[in-house]
Amino acid sequence: MMDEGMDDQLELEDQVEQQQQADPLSGHPYLEFSSESEAAGRCAKLRRMHVGGHWGGCWPSLETLGETARAREFIPIDSLWDRLFELLHMSSYK
Fold first, then answer.
1. Taking the mean position of all CA atoms in its chain, how far away is CA 71?
2. Exposed (0-12), middle (13-18) or buried (19+): which is 18, by Cβ within 10 Å?
């Protein structure tokens, strides 16, 4: 029977292997830094950073979904965000 420490080590190795398979940049020559360098620390921080989801919307889409009233609770008419939504759907060739 394997001890708890051995199980943890095998699990950690499996996780590292899965991350390397899922990460196409793992082992890329451009990202090879000395492990003690500032660049390695910055690179590791950026690669672990969660960017989050971004939302893009438009008034016609919100109207179709029946969510315009709810969106107006936090995006007032003639606000900067309202104008941005309108600009998103203007042709850039006008």
1. 23
2. exposed
- pLDDT tens digits, residue range 13-33? 776 666 656 777 777 888 888
* 61 burial level (CB within 10 Å; 0-12, 13-18, 19+): middle
Hey, where are the domains in the chain?
Answer: 4-48, 59-88
User: Which of helix, strand or coil describes residue 62?
Assistant: helix
Q: Which two tokens stand for residue 18?
A: 């899965």
Side-chain-side CA neighbours of residue 34 (13 Å) = 3
Q: Do residues 57 and 64 make contact, with C-beta atoms less than 8 angstroms apart?
A: no
Q: How far is CA 83 from CA 8, 10, 59, 86, in A?
A: 54, 54, 11, 5
pLDDT tens by residue, 38-89 = 998 998 888 888 877 666 667 788 889 998 888 888 888 888 888 887 777 6
